Amino acid sequence: MDRARRCRAGCRRDPGRDHRIRARETCRRCRSRRGGGRRLALAQPWGRRTDDPRDACRERRRDRRASGELTGRLAIMAEADPSDARASIPLEQWLDRLGEATGAPGGGSASAVMLALAAGLLRMVAEYTPGRDEAKASGRRLLVLRTRALHASDADSEASVALGAALALPTEDPARESRLLRAAVDGARSSVEVGEVGIALVAELDVLGRVGNHHLDADLAVAREALRAGLGGALVNLRANLDLVAAHSAGSGEAESTSEGELRRAERRITHARGSLAELP
Asked: Helices 217-248 & 107-127, crossing angle to 10 degrees?
């Protein structure tokens, strides 16, 4: 009986030899003859330019749609009411606003709220630590810092609306560059304020890590992670605004240059504070 088997390429192999093949598998000889066995059909990369003029038309239409969507979103940001994004409104309503394409509240406000959550958790640890004057004093400072974080959230929403309004101005508007630079500086300053709150909270975390009730170590750890996230968000927004300042400060006066230098130093302070979290007990 002919026990020879065929591979997918049609080659007959003798199963009595050591180089018998598995079913549905290309044999070694066919791979060498056909240049590597199975060939995969690679899909053409999306957006690759071809000589077909219809592809160029499709790409132009896609670019126009994207540009129109961005312009529409900037117009929505320019018309947003910062009072609707205040952190004092109910949490569910605030989260609804955060998920809308308004820019207020945005990432900076969310970072400040995360710091407010960290302050609340740290104050809980302080309240669960009776008989320690350091913990009691920390609890009073944390109440102030929580309020300061919520105010920073509201201020960042206002800065976000101003930046959206500046970006929505026509490019030919002579006032666009100056307004955009001013809005970027104000946005960076609001991010610095969020970061400064976070720096103060790092000090309170250090205090409560040493004297706090150790039955609440898990809550302390959650506060640390919220603090890390809030500081990280402040840095991301600060750097984004600093990039805008650098891009639109050509020919600006000494005042803008001084502001940029102060903001860069603040960025280094916030970066150091976030890095120090790993060293705390």
From this structure: 150
| 222-to-10, 125, 280 alpha-carbon distances in Å | 64, 11, 14
104 C-beta neighbours (distance < 10 Å), count: 28
Residue 171, Cα to own-chain centre: how many angstroms? 27
Task: Burial-class residue 240 by CB neighbours within 10 Å (0-12, 13-18, 19+).
Answer: middle
Query: pLDDT grade, residue 67 (50/70/90)?
Result: low
Cβ–Cβ < 8 Å for 185, 116: no
Q: Is 9 exposed, middle or buried (0-12, 13-18, 19+ CB in 10 A)?
A: middle
Spatial separation of the C-alpha atoms in residues 177 and 75, rounded to whole Å: 17
Residue 46 has pLDDT above 50, yes or no: no
pLDDT higher at 220 or 19: 220
The pTM (predicted TM-score) of the whole model is: 0.69
Task: For residue 111, give the nearest of 189, 187, 194 by alpha carbon.
Answer: 194
Q: At 131, phi and psi to the nearest 5? A: 80, 5
Q: pLDDT (tens digit, 9 = 90+) per residue, 48-64?
A: 445 566 666 667 666 66
Specify whether the CB–CB gap between 138 and 178 falls below 8 A.
no
Compute CA distances 234 → 10, 166, 190, 203, whole Å: 64, 21, 9, 17
| Residues 95, 73: Cα–Cα separation, whole Å | 19
Residue that is written with structure tokens 């959650």 in the block:
222
Please tell me the distance from the alpha carbon of residue 124 to that of residue 103, in angstroms, as a whole number. 32
